[in-house]
Amino acid sequence: MMYAQVTGWGSALPSRVMTNQDLEKLVETSDEWIRSRTGISERRIAGPKESTSTLAIRAAKYALQVADLNPRELDLVIVATTTPDYPMPSVAALVQDGIGAARAGAFDLNAACSGFVYALSVANGMIASGSAENVLIVGAETLSRWVDWTDRGTCVLFGDGAGALILQRSDLPTGLRSCILGSDGSGASLLNVPAGGTRTPITAEIIQNRQNFIKMKGPEVYRFAVSVMAQAAQQALTAAGMTADDIDLFIPHQANLRIIQSAMKTLKVPPEKVFINVQHYGNTSAASIPIALCEAIAEGRVKAGSNLLLVGFGAGLSWGSAVLNWGVTPSSVTDSWWRSMVRNVQGREAAVRSFALRAHRRLELVGTHALRRFNGWTEA
Ligand code: UT7
Question: Which residues pair with 155 in a beta bridge?
């Protein structure tokens, strides 16, 4: 039996902080309203040179550093995101190139805020089936680019960031103990970006009506979130043959403090067993669980042998919950000069490799054109 052990983790957040007070200047809202209804005090907003892929690449590089893994050894890169850099290619392809994962396949996965749990499940399955040995999964979002900054019902909620894990094949029986994935597409219109896809392409009128931004029926999503979070968590516990008492730390999707508290109350989980950082980052969708996990590790709340319960929900509607048995002792990465030099070289190697591949492609094209022209001449 093969298991998928988490051996590396990393997160990346934009440096720009947007506080509730900053939002008071943009829309009719107040710090008091936002904090009391959501628990959010501030969020991070991507700078002009940042995007989903740049945040994902930063998080991935940290995770590789913790795992002490050469990116060339990765077999697969999965990026969970709803806010890709482009409609195509995938963010995962940009990450694969950016970190120099020369041998890896790469694809994006869109399950909105539940995406990271979905990615974890797929990576685990690939490793357990023997199809992959080393997998990078990233949850990354730049929701600030899709938020309507004139809509106070949504713009106060979201933030940008990325979190990544490395999963490696292991004989040790640790890793995913259970995973529940769910979807209810009948609720698709409760949280969506109505235009910009193939059904409703962007037109001047669409932009004027602001249909290319996130729309949400907040109270309906709230009701769904509270019940599905408790339900999915309970199902994952049952599937793992555990109760809430067996879990050392609950790491829920960070959308709203009230949703988390209400779901945890239903599950009878004491607050000290729940990791919360929504106050600092708002809702970062697919990135929220891995960012929270990385912070929980940094705070010493995850140890070898810890049982973690991850639970997410979001657009789709979608949900996912997993019980994860943590297998390694999270020690802080002390970088020897040698390791940091090797990584530096690997970083440059990725850039050089990418440049060389692009140059080769261009030369090939020039060569083909030249050959065609030459053949044309000789045939004429
Ligand atoms: O990742 C999954 C995604 N989403 C979620 O998990 C979000 C789920 N929903 C929620 O978290 C909550 O529904 C919100 C935080 C979005 C809204 O809280 P609420 O308690 O459900 O408020 P509401 O939408 O029922 O609105 C109550 C009032 C309304 O005013 P009136 O009609 O009562 O006069 C809103 O217009 O609050 C008003 N309001 C605001 N006031 C100040 C809505 N947004 C704001 C705001 N500042 N930012």
Answer: none
Determine if ligand 1 sits within 6 Å of the CB of residue 225. Answer: yes
Q: Ligand 1, from 23, 27, 156, 222: best to mutate by most atoms within 8 Å of Cβ?
A: 222
**Ligand 1 contacts CB of residue 256 (under 6 A):** yes
Q: Which protein residue's CA is at the shortest distance from atom 12 of ligand 1?
A: 218
Whether ligand 1 lies within 6 angstroms of the CB of 156 is answered as yes
pTM over 0.90: yes
**Considering only 36-50, 218-232, 353-367, which range has the smallest mean pLDDT?**
353-367
Cα–Cα distance measured from residue 225 to residue 252, given in angstroms and rounded to the nearest whole number: 11
| Domain spans of the chain, in order of start | 3-325, 337-380
Model confidence over 45-61: pLDDT tens digits?
999 999 999 999 999 99
CATH pick for 3-325 out of 3.30.2320.30, 3.30.70.980, 3.40.47.10, 3.40.50.1110: 3.40.47.10
The DSSP call for residue 276 is: -
Question: Pseudo-torsion of CA 126, 73, 137, 361, nearest 10°?
Answer: -110
